[in-house]
Write a structure and sequence with these properties.
The chain is of the alpha/beta class and 464 residues long. 35% of the residues lie in helices and 23% in strands. The protein has 15 helices and 22 strands. Strands 1-7-6-5-4-2-3 form a 7-stranded mixed sheet, with helices on both faces. The radius of gyration is 23 Å and the shape is globular.
Amino acid sequence: MSDISITKLPETATEPTDTRKVFVKTYGCQMNVYDSQRMADSLAAEGYVTTDTPEDADLVLLNTCHIRERASEKMYSALGRYRKMKEKRVAEGHNMTIGVAGCVAQAEGQEILRRSPSVDLVIGPQTYHRLPNALQQVREGKQVVETEYALEDKFEHLPSPKREQVRKRGVTSFLTVQEGCDKFCTFCVVPYTRGSEVSRSVAQIVAEAEELATAGVRELTLLGQNVNAWHGVGSDGREWGLGELLYRLAEIPGIARLRYTTSHPRDMDEALIAAHRDLSVLMPYLHLPVQSGSDRILKAMNRKHKAEDYFRLIERIRTARPDMALSGDFIVGFPGETDEDFEDTMRLVREVNYAQAYSFKYSPRPGTPGADFKDHVDEAVKDERLQRLQALLSEQQYAFQDSLVGTTTDVLIEKPGRFEGQVVGRSPWLLPVILENNTDQIGDIVKVKIISTGTNSLVAEKLS
Protein backbone atom coordinates (compact mmCIF):
# COMPACT_ATOMS: atom_id res chain seq x y z
CA MET A 1 0.00 0.00 0.00
CA SER A 2 1.20 3.51 -0.79
CA ASP A 3 1.20 5.97 2.11
CA ILE A 4 0.94 9.44 0.60
CA SER A 5 0.29 12.77 2.24
CA ILE A 6 -1.54 15.07 -0.17
CA THR A 7 -2.34 18.77 0.11
CA LYS A 8 -4.54 20.58 -2.42
CA LEU A 9 -2.75 23.42 -4.22
CA PRO A 10 -4.18 26.46 -5.99
CA GLU A 11 -4.44 26.17 -9.75
CA THR A 12 -1.42 27.26 -11.78
CA ALA A 13 -0.60 27.64 -15.44
CA THR A 14 -1.72 24.97 -17.87
CA GLU A 15 0.77 22.14 -18.49
CA PRO A 16 2.18 22.36 -22.02
CA THR A 17 1.45 19.45 -24.35
CA ASP A 18 4.92 19.23 -25.94
CA THR A 19 7.90 17.31 -24.55
CA ARG A 20 8.54 18.03 -20.91
CA LYS A 21 12.02 18.71 -19.58
CA VAL A 22 13.47 17.56 -16.26
CA PHE A 23 16.52 18.98 -14.50
CA VAL A 24 17.99 16.68 -11.85
CA LYS A 25 20.43 18.10 -9.30
CA THR A 26 22.31 15.34 -7.46
CA TYR A 27 24.02 15.75 -4.10
CA GLY A 28 26.19 13.30 -2.22
CA CYS A 29 27.13 9.70 -2.81
CA GLN A 30 27.47 7.50 -5.86
CA MET A 31 24.22 5.76 -4.98
CA ASN A 32 22.46 9.10 -5.35
CA VAL A 33 23.98 9.39 -8.82
CA TYR A 34 22.58 5.96 -9.66
CA ASP A 35 19.19 6.85 -8.14
CA SER A 36 19.06 10.06 -10.19
CA GLN A 37 19.71 8.08 -13.35
CA ARG A 38 16.95 5.59 -12.52
CA MET A 39 14.53 8.42 -11.78
CA ALA A 40 15.42 9.96 -15.14
CA ASP A 41 14.82 6.56 -16.78
CA SER A 42 11.42 6.34 -15.09
CA LEU A 43 10.52 9.86 -16.20
CA ALA A 44 11.65 9.17 -19.77
CA ALA A 45 8.85 6.64 -20.02
CA GLU A 46 6.50 9.51 -19.10
CA GLY A 47 7.76 11.77 -21.88
CA TYR A 48 10.41 13.73 -20.00
CA VAL A 49 13.81 14.53 -21.46
CA THR A 50 16.72 15.69 -19.32
CA THR A 51 18.07 19.22 -19.54
CA ASP A 52 21.32 20.66 -18.19
CA THR A 53 19.73 23.96 -17.20
CA PRO A 54 16.97 24.44 -14.62
CA GLU A 55 15.67 27.69 -16.12
CA ASP A 56 13.79 25.89 -18.93
CA ALA A 57 12.79 22.81 -16.94
CA ASP A 58 9.21 21.72 -16.39
CA LEU A 59 10.40 19.61 -13.46
CA VAL A 60 13.31 20.39 -11.13
CA LEU A 61 14.27 17.46 -8.95
CA LEU A 62 16.79 17.74 -6.11
CA ASN A 63 18.20 14.35 -5.08
CA THR A 64 19.56 15.15 -1.64
CA CYS A 65 22.14 13.73 0.77
CA HIS A 66 21.93 13.89 4.57
CA ILE A 67 25.38 12.57 5.43
CA ARG A 68 27.22 15.87 5.76
CA GLU A 69 26.74 18.85 8.05
CA ARG A 70 24.35 21.59 6.90
CA ALA A 71 22.98 19.38 4.10
CA SER A 72 19.46 20.60 4.85
CA GLU A 73 20.44 24.27 4.82
CA LYS A 74 22.20 23.90 1.48
CA MET A 75 19.05 22.31 0.10
CA TYR A 76 16.81 25.13 1.39
CA SER A 77 19.18 27.69 -0.08
CA ALA A 78 18.92 25.96 -3.48
CA LEU A 79 15.14 25.77 -3.16
CA GLY A 80 15.07 29.53 -2.70
CA ARG A 81 16.78 29.97 -6.06
CA TYR A 82 14.47 27.51 -7.80
CA ARG A 83 11.42 29.25 -6.29
CA LYS A 84 12.37 32.44 -8.14
CA MET A 85 12.78 30.47 -11.39
CA LYS A 86 9.37 28.91 -10.84
CA GLU A 87 7.75 32.28 -10.29
CA LYS A 88 9.32 33.58 -13.50
CA ARG A 89 8.14 30.57 -15.54
CA VAL A 90 4.59 30.81 -14.16
CA ALA A 91 4.53 34.52 -15.02
CA GLU A 92 5.48 33.54 -18.58
CA GLY A 93 2.61 31.03 -18.73
CA HIS A 94 4.54 27.83 -18.01
CA ASN A 95 4.61 25.38 -15.13
CA MET A 96 7.63 24.35 -13.10
CA THR A 97 7.23 21.50 -10.65
CA ILE A 98 9.80 21.36 -7.86
CA GLY A 99 10.52 18.03 -6.20
CA VAL A 100 12.85 16.96 -3.40
CA ALA A 101 14.07 13.36 -3.32
CA GLY A 102 16.73 11.46 -1.43
CA CYS A 103 17.78 11.26 2.18
CA VAL A 104 16.89 14.80 3.30
CA ALA A 105 13.44 14.21 1.84
CA GLN A 106 13.19 11.02 3.89
CA ALA A 107 14.39 12.69 7.07
CA GLU A 108 12.38 15.92 6.91
CA GLY A 109 9.24 15.10 4.92
CA GLN A 110 6.47 17.62 5.67
CA GLU A 111 8.96 20.06 7.18
CA ILE A 112 10.24 20.74 3.66
CA LEU A 113 6.78 21.86 2.54
CA ARG A 114 6.43 24.02 5.62
CA ARG A 115 9.70 25.82 5.04
CA SER A 116 9.50 25.87 1.23
CA PRO A 117 5.86 26.06 0.08
CA SER A 118 6.99 26.25 -3.55
CA VAL A 119 7.94 22.56 -3.35
CA ASP A 120 5.30 20.33 -4.95
CA LEU A 121 6.70 16.90 -4.22
CA VAL A 122 8.79 15.20 -1.52
CA ILE A 123 9.76 11.58 -2.17
CA GLY A 124 12.12 9.29 -0.25
CA PRO A 125 14.85 7.03 -1.68
CA GLN A 126 12.79 3.87 -1.14
CA THR A 127 9.77 5.15 -3.06
CA TYR A 128 11.11 6.89 -6.14
CA HIS A 129 9.69 4.14 -8.35
CA ARG A 130 6.34 5.80 -7.54
CA LEU A 131 7.53 9.11 -8.97
CA PRO A 132 5.32 9.08 -12.12
CA ASN A 133 2.19 8.49 -10.03
CA ALA A 134 3.21 11.20 -7.57
CA LEU A 135 3.71 13.65 -10.44
CA GLN A 136 0.24 12.86 -11.71
CA GLN A 137 -1.07 13.86 -8.28
CA VAL A 138 0.88 17.12 -8.59
CA ARG A 139 -0.64 17.80 -12.02
CA GLU A 140 -4.03 17.45 -10.36
CA GLY A 141 -3.09 20.36 -8.13
CA LYS A 142 -1.83 18.56 -5.02
CA GLN A 143 1.31 18.61 -2.93
CA VAL A 144 2.61 15.10 -2.34
CA VAL A 145 4.82 13.74 0.44
CA GLU A 146 5.74 10.08 0.05
CA THR A 147 8.37 8.92 2.51
CA GLU A 148 6.98 5.69 3.92
CA TYR A 149 9.19 2.70 3.21
CA ALA A 150 7.80 0.80 0.25
CA LEU A 151 6.55 -2.72 0.87
CA GLU A 152 7.11 -3.71 -2.75
CA ASP A 153 10.49 -4.13 -4.44
CA LYS A 154 11.05 -0.80 -6.14
CA PHE A 155 13.52 -2.27 -8.63
CA GLU A 156 10.83 -4.55 -10.06
CA HIS A 157 8.72 -1.48 -10.86
CA LEU A 158 11.44 0.63 -12.49
CA PRO A 159 11.62 0.53 -16.29
CA SER A 160 14.83 -0.62 -17.93
CA PRO A 161 16.90 2.30 -19.22
CA LYS A 162 16.85 2.79 -22.97
CA ARG A 163 20.11 1.85 -24.63
CA GLU A 164 20.57 5.32 -26.09
CA GLN A 165 20.29 6.76 -22.56
CA VAL A 166 22.96 4.38 -21.29
CA ARG A 167 25.26 5.21 -24.21
CA LYS A 168 24.99 8.93 -23.46
CA ARG A 169 26.20 8.26 -19.92
CA GLY A 170 29.42 6.64 -21.09
CA VAL A 171 31.24 3.32 -20.86
CA THR A 172 31.22 3.15 -17.07
CA SER A 173 28.11 2.66 -14.98
CA PHE A 174 26.90 2.25 -11.42
CA LEU A 175 24.64 -0.64 -10.47
CA THR A 176 22.99 -0.74 -7.05
CA VAL A 177 22.96 -4.24 -5.56
CA GLN A 178 22.25 -3.44 -1.90
CA GLU A 179 20.62 -0.64 0.08
CA GLY A 180 20.36 0.31 3.72
CA CYS A 181 22.49 -0.59 6.70
CA ASP A 182 22.06 -2.61 9.89
CA LYS A 183 25.34 -1.55 11.51
CA PHE A 184 24.02 1.55 13.32
CA CYS A 185 27.32 3.37 13.71
CA THR A 186 26.60 6.10 16.23
CA PHE A 187 27.69 8.90 13.87
CA CYS A 188 25.70 7.76 10.84
CA VAL A 189 22.21 8.68 9.65
CA VAL A 190 21.98 6.08 6.87
CA PRO A 191 19.96 3.43 8.79
CA TYR A 192 17.35 6.10 9.50
CA THR A 193 17.11 7.49 5.97
CA ARG A 194 17.78 4.39 3.86
CA GLY A 195 16.38 1.74 6.18
CA SER A 196 17.61 -1.75 6.98
CA GLU A 197 19.82 -3.80 4.70
CA VAL A 198 18.07 -5.08 1.58
CA SER A 199 19.76 -7.06 -1.19
CA ARG A 200 18.59 -7.21 -4.78
CA SER A 201 18.21 -10.66 -6.30
CA VAL A 202 20.91 -12.28 -8.40
CA ALA A 203 18.51 -12.41 -11.35
CA GLN A 204 17.77 -8.66 -11.16
CA ILE A 205 21.43 -7.73 -10.89
CA VAL A 206 22.58 -10.00 -13.73
CA ALA A 207 19.75 -8.86 -15.99
CA GLU A 208 20.59 -5.18 -15.44
CA ALA A 209 24.31 -5.83 -15.90
CA GLU A 210 23.65 -7.64 -19.18
CA GLU A 211 21.49 -4.76 -20.40
CA LEU A 212 24.25 -2.29 -19.55
CA ALA A 213 26.87 -4.44 -21.30
CA THR A 214 24.69 -4.67 -24.41
CA ALA A 215 24.48 -0.86 -24.42
CA GLY A 216 28.27 -0.57 -24.42
CA VAL A 217 29.19 -0.35 -20.74
CA ARG A 218 32.68 -1.77 -20.12
CA GLU A 219 33.10 -1.06 -16.40
CA LEU A 220 30.54 -1.70 -13.64
CA THR A 221 30.73 -0.36 -10.10
CA LEU A 222 28.43 -2.22 -7.73
CA LEU A 223 26.90 0.06 -5.11
CA GLY A 224 25.54 -0.36 -1.63
CA GLN A 225 25.52 1.52 1.63
CA ASN A 226 27.12 -1.67 2.92
CA VAL A 227 27.83 -3.38 -0.37
CA ASN A 228 29.76 -6.38 0.92
CA ALA A 229 26.80 -7.30 3.13
CA TRP A 230 24.97 -8.22 -0.09
CA HIS A 231 23.57 -11.76 -0.14
CA GLY A 232 21.13 -13.59 -2.36
CA VAL A 233 20.16 -17.03 -3.60
CA GLY A 234 22.29 -17.97 -6.57
CA SER A 235 21.58 -20.13 -9.59
CA ASP A 236 22.82 -23.18 -7.66
CA GLY A 237 20.25 -22.68 -4.90
CA ARG A 238 22.85 -21.63 -2.33
CA GLU A 239 23.00 -18.23 -0.70
CA TRP A 240 25.73 -16.23 -2.36
CA GLY A 241 27.79 -13.40 -0.97
CA LEU A 242 29.35 -10.55 -2.93
CA GLY A 243 32.35 -12.67 -3.89
CA GLU A 244 30.18 -15.25 -5.66
CA LEU A 245 28.21 -12.49 -7.36
CA LEU A 246 31.40 -10.97 -8.74
CA TYR A 247 32.43 -14.32 -10.25
CA ARG A 248 29.06 -14.46 -12.03
CA LEU A 249 29.24 -10.87 -13.30
CA ALA A 250 32.76 -11.50 -14.59
CA GLU A 251 31.24 -13.99 -17.06
CA ILE A 252 29.11 -11.35 -18.84
CA PRO A 253 30.48 -10.61 -22.33
CA GLY A 254 31.59 -7.01 -22.73
CA ILE A 255 32.15 -6.31 -19.03
CA ALA A 256 35.90 -5.76 -18.78
CA ARG A 257 36.12 -4.23 -15.32
CA LEU A 258 34.34 -4.61 -11.99
CA ARG A 259 34.47 -2.48 -8.85
CA TYR A 260 32.33 -2.13 -5.73
CA THR A 261 31.79 0.40 -2.95
CA THR A 262 31.29 1.05 -0.02
CA SER A 263 32.45 -1.84 2.15
CA HIS A 264 32.46 -2.51 5.87
CA PRO A 265 35.46 -4.36 7.39
CA ARG A 266 33.15 -6.76 9.24
CA ASP A 267 31.69 -8.07 5.97
CA MET A 268 34.96 -8.61 4.09
CA ASP A 269 34.84 -12.42 3.97
CA GLU A 270 37.26 -14.94 2.50
CA ALA A 271 35.16 -15.52 -0.63
CA LEU A 272 35.35 -11.83 -1.47
CA ILE A 273 39.09 -11.74 -0.82
CA ALA A 274 39.47 -14.80 -3.06
CA ALA A 275 37.61 -12.98 -5.83
CA HIS A 276 40.29 -10.29 -5.74
CA ARG A 277 42.90 -13.03 -6.08
CA ASP A 278 41.19 -14.86 -8.96
CA LEU A 279 39.38 -12.28 -11.09
CA SER A 280 41.50 -10.11 -13.35
CA VAL A 281 38.41 -8.01 -14.17
CA LEU A 282 38.04 -7.05 -10.49
CA MET A 283 40.10 -3.91 -10.18
CA PRO A 284 42.84 -3.65 -7.52
CA TYR A 285 41.28 -0.70 -5.73
CA LEU A 286 39.31 -1.06 -2.51
CA HIS A 287 37.50 1.57 -0.47
CA LEU A 288 37.41 0.12 3.06
CA PRO A 289 36.55 2.75 5.69
CA VAL A 290 37.95 2.33 9.20
CA GLN A 291 36.99 5.80 10.60
CA SER A 292 39.47 5.75 13.52
CA GLY A 293 42.59 3.97 14.70
CA SER A 294 41.59 4.10 18.35
CA ASP A 295 39.85 1.04 19.80
CA ARG A 296 38.16 3.25 22.37
CA ILE A 297 36.71 5.53 19.71
CA LEU A 298 35.80 2.60 17.46
CA LYS A 299 33.78 1.17 20.33
CA ALA A 300 32.05 4.52 20.90
CA MET A 301 31.28 4.61 17.17
CA ASN A 302 29.76 1.09 17.41
CA ARG A 303 32.02 -0.12 14.61
CA LYS A 304 32.36 -3.55 16.30
CA HIS A 305 35.91 -4.10 15.14
CA LYS A 306 39.26 -3.12 16.55
CA ALA A 307 42.27 -1.58 14.86
CA GLU A 308 44.11 -4.91 15.02
CA ASP A 309 41.20 -6.61 13.21
CA TYR A 310 41.56 -4.07 10.44
CA PHE A 311 45.34 -4.60 10.23
CA ARG A 312 44.90 -8.37 9.89
CA LEU A 313 42.23 -7.89 7.25
CA ILE A 314 44.46 -5.58 5.20
CA GLU A 315 47.26 -8.16 5.41
CA ARG A 316 44.98 -10.90 4.03
CA ILE A 317 43.76 -8.64 1.22
CA ARG A 318 47.28 -7.64 0.19
CA THR A 319 48.44 -11.24 0.30
CA ALA A 320 45.66 -12.13 -2.14
CA ARG A 321 46.22 -9.05 -4.34
CA PRO A 322 49.68 -7.50 -3.84
CA ASP A 323 48.96 -4.54 -6.15
CA MET A 324 45.84 -3.51 -4.18
CA ALA A 325 45.47 0.24 -3.66
CA LEU A 326 43.48 1.13 -0.56
CA SER A 327 41.14 4.00 0.15
CA GLY A 328 39.41 4.86 3.40
CA ASP A 329 37.27 7.24 5.43
CA PHE A 330 38.30 8.97 8.64
CA ILE A 331 36.42 11.04 11.18
CA VAL A 332 38.43 13.27 13.51
CA GLY A 333 37.13 14.89 16.65
CA PHE A 334 34.51 12.29 17.53
CA PRO A 335 33.11 13.02 21.02
CA GLY A 336 35.66 12.06 23.65
CA GLU A 337 38.59 11.76 21.21
CA THR A 338 41.81 12.53 23.07
CA ASP A 339 45.23 13.38 21.68
CA GLU A 340 46.21 9.75 22.26
CA ASP A 341 43.17 8.50 20.34
CA PHE A 342 44.05 10.76 17.43
CA GLU A 343 47.66 9.56 17.45
CA ASP A 344 46.33 6.00 17.19
CA THR A 345 44.60 7.06 13.97
CA MET A 346 47.81 8.60 12.65
CA ARG A 347 49.69 5.37 13.46
CA LEU A 348 47.08 3.32 11.61
CA VAL A 349 47.36 5.55 8.54
CA ARG A 350 51.15 5.24 8.54
CA GLU A 351 50.99 1.46 8.82
CA VAL A 352 48.29 0.88 6.20
CA ASN A 353 49.59 3.47 3.70
CA TYR A 354 46.61 4.66 1.66
CA ALA A 355 46.53 5.50 -2.04
CA GLN A 356 43.58 7.81 -1.40
CA ALA A 357 41.33 8.66 1.52
CA TYR A 358 38.56 10.97 2.67
CA SER A 359 38.67 12.69 6.04
CA PHE A 360 36.18 14.89 7.85
CA LYS A 361 35.58 16.64 11.13
CA TYR A 362 32.85 15.03 13.19
CA SER A 363 29.53 16.86 13.02
CA PRO A 364 26.45 15.62 14.90
CA ARG A 365 23.67 14.29 12.72
CA PRO A 366 20.21 14.82 14.25
CA GLY A 367 18.58 11.56 15.23
CA THR A 368 21.80 9.60 15.66
CA PRO A 369 23.11 8.44 19.07
CA GLY A 370 26.29 10.47 18.59
CA ALA A 371 24.28 13.68 18.58
CA ASP A 372 23.50 13.09 22.27
CA PHE A 373 27.07 12.28 23.32
CA LYS A 374 28.85 14.57 25.73
CA ASP A 375 32.50 15.60 25.78
CA HIS A 376 32.51 17.17 22.33
CA VAL A 377 35.90 18.15 20.96
CA ASP A 378 36.65 21.84 20.51
CA GLU A 379 36.39 23.01 16.89
CA ALA A 380 39.90 24.45 16.90
CA VAL A 381 41.26 21.08 18.01
CA LYS A 382 39.27 19.33 15.28
CA ASP A 383 40.69 21.74 12.70
CA GLU A 384 44.27 21.14 13.81
CA ARG A 385 43.87 17.37 13.83
CA LEU A 386 42.18 17.33 10.43
CA GLN A 387 44.98 19.39 8.89
CA ARG A 388 47.60 17.00 10.26
CA LEU A 389 45.72 13.94 9.06
CA GLN A 390 45.06 15.36 5.61
CA ALA A 391 48.72 16.33 5.23
CA LEU A 392 49.73 12.72 5.94
CA LEU A 393 47.08 11.30 3.61
CA SER A 394 48.11 13.69 0.82
CA GLU A 395 51.75 12.69 1.29
CA GLN A 396 50.77 9.03 0.90
CA GLN A 397 48.58 9.72 -2.12
CA TYR A 398 51.33 11.57 -3.96
CA ALA A 399 53.86 8.88 -3.06
CA PHE A 400 51.55 6.24 -4.51
CA GLN A 401 51.07 8.21 -7.71
CA ASP A 402 54.81 8.81 -8.01
CA SER A 403 55.43 5.07 -7.59
CA LEU A 404 53.44 4.45 -10.77
CA VAL A 405 55.72 6.59 -12.97
CA GLY A 406 57.63 4.33 -15.34
CA THR A 407 55.21 1.42 -14.95
CA THR A 408 52.89 0.00 -17.60
CA THR A 409 49.20 -0.61 -17.11
CA ASP A 410 45.88 -0.89 -18.92
CA VAL A 411 43.67 2.18 -19.30
CA LEU A 412 39.99 2.26 -20.22
CA ILE A 413 39.36 5.19 -22.58
CA GLU A 414 36.35 7.08 -21.17
CA LYS A 415 35.98 10.46 -22.86
CA PRO A 416 37.66 13.13 -24.98
CA GLY A 417 40.13 15.38 -23.19
CA ARG A 418 40.12 19.16 -23.02
CA PHE A 419 42.30 19.53 -26.10
CA GLU A 420 42.21 18.13 -29.62
CA GLY A 421 43.75 14.66 -29.86
CA GLN A 422 43.61 14.18 -26.09
CA VAL A 423 41.60 11.50 -24.34
CA VAL A 424 41.01 10.70 -20.69
CA GLY A 425 40.97 7.15 -19.43
CA ARG A 426 40.82 5.39 -16.08
CA SER A 427 43.59 3.37 -14.48
CA PRO A 428 42.92 0.14 -12.55
CA TRP A 429 43.40 2.24 -9.38
CA LEU A 430 40.60 4.66 -10.38
CA LEU A 431 42.95 7.54 -11.18
CA PRO A 432 42.21 9.52 -14.37
CA VAL A 433 44.86 9.05 -17.05
CA ILE A 434 45.52 11.68 -19.73
CA LEU A 435 46.76 10.52 -23.14
CA GLU A 436 47.95 12.89 -25.87
CA ASN A 437 47.70 12.29 -29.63
CA ASN A 438 45.53 9.25 -29.16
CA THR A 439 43.15 7.91 -31.80
CA ASP A 440 41.61 5.07 -29.82
CA GLN A 441 37.86 4.95 -29.41
CA ILE A 442 35.84 5.51 -26.25
CA GLY A 443 35.54 2.11 -24.57
CA ASP A 444 38.87 0.75 -25.80
CA ILE A 445 41.33 -0.63 -23.26
CA VAL A 446 44.92 0.23 -24.17
CA LYS A 447 48.33 -0.54 -22.73
CA VAL A 448 50.17 2.59 -21.59
CA LYS A 449 53.30 3.71 -19.79
CA ILE A 450 52.87 6.24 -17.00
CA ILE A 451 55.25 9.15 -17.63
CA SER A 452 54.23 11.75 -15.01
CA THR A 453 51.60 12.64 -12.42
CA GLY A 454 49.26 15.52 -11.77
CA THR A 455 47.60 16.46 -8.50
CA ASN A 456 44.90 13.79 -8.86
CA SER A 457 45.71 12.25 -12.20
CA LEU A 458 48.34 10.48 -14.29
CA VAL A 459 49.85 11.32 -17.68
CA ALA A 460 50.72 8.40 -19.96
CA GLU A 461 51.80 7.45 -23.45
CA LYS A 462 50.37 4.56 -25.39
CA LEU A 463 52.64 1.61 -26.01
CA SER A 464 52.70 0.39 -29.59
